[in-house]
Design brief:
- This protein has about 100 residues and is mainly alpha-helical.
- It has one domain: Serine Threonine Protein Phosphatase 5, Tetratricopeptide repeat (Alpha Horseshoe).
- The longest helix has 19 residues.
- It starts with a helix and ends with a helix.
- The model has no long low-confidence stretch (mean pLDDT about 85).
């Protein structure tokens, strides 16, 4: 259901309806978070969907908090093919610390 909400959010955003898009992006975040515990081990699609929704909604504080949460989800278990994603998340979550 997260993808459906994210799709609705993108449609609203492209139509210039930023308030409605923000509501749909928030719904997408909720659905991705609710379903995360049921994802197979090592799945990163939902956390990345959460971050994408936060960023597209312009919710930088939420993106930072969720980047930190994502890194708490067993980052050592992530395969090396996802190391670029891990570096990006670490950069996102520490950007304010450097500013």
């Amino acid at each position: 259901m997260g993808n459906a909400a994210a799709g609705a959010a993108l449609a609203e955003l492209m139509g210039g309806n930023t308030d409605s898009a923000g509501e749909w992006f928030a719904t997408a975040v909720e659905r991705y978070r609710e379903s995360y515990e049921y994802a197979p081990p090592g799945s990163w699609g939902r956390p990345i969907g959460i971050l994408k929704a936060r960023i597209l909604a312009g919710d930088w504080g939420g993106a930072e908090a969720d980047a930190r949460w994502t890194l708490e989800q067993n980052p050592a278990d992530v395969s090396t093919s996802r190391s670029a994603t891990k570096r990006g998340l670490k950069s996102t979550s520490s950007a304010r610390d450097r500013a």
